[in-house]
Specification:
Blueprint: H1 2-30, H2 43-70, H3 99-115, H4 118-136
Helix pairs in contact: 1-2, 3-4
Length: 146
């Protein structure tokens, strides 16, 4: 995580330098002495590149704080670490469950209803609710019942 934080600090510096260069470039390009146009800053690109730098600072600050509060180094930050050192259990997943497909279909129907008509959204919400209940309680009955 320390390496990621350093990379984002470097990215933030790059974007702020790019923003400064963009401002100078827009001032040089926009000034036309023949047409008597005063130099002007192109605001859309300037704000976009500046906000990208701010987003990089936000992510870098977060990663730096998390790295300092965790008390140890992650396997990704050690040069002598193996791939298996970072292989932790990620959670429990149902190997043969069809409920995630049903949840995705219900969400797709819900958003399709926003484009077509509200009556499709009502059907989609009903499918989402039923499939979430089924996914939650699938280990209490049937083949995987406890």
């Amino acid at each position: 995580m320390g390496t990621n934080a350093k990379l984002f600090w470097i990215l933030a510096g790059f974007f702020f330098l790019a923003d400064a260069a963009y401002i100078v470039w827009s001032l040089l390009v926009s000034s036309n002495p023949a047409a008597s146009n005063p130099p002007a800053i192109e605001w859309v690109g300037t704000v976009a590149i500046g906000l990208t730098g701010l987003l990089s600072v936000l992510i870098a600050f977060y990663l730096t704080r998390i790295h300092s509060s965790q008390g140890g180094e992650l396997p990704e930050d050690r040069l002598d670490a193996n791939i298996d050192d970072g292989d932790a259990e990620q959670g429990h997943f149902s190997p043969w469950s069809w409920w995630p497909l049903m949840v995705g279909s219900g969400v797709a129907l819900t958003f399709l209803g926003l484009a077509i008509g509200p009556w499709v959204s009502f059907i989609g919400v009903a499918v989402v609710v039923v499939s979430l209940v089924g996914w939650t309680y699938e280990y209490y009955r049937g083949y995987f019942g406890h």
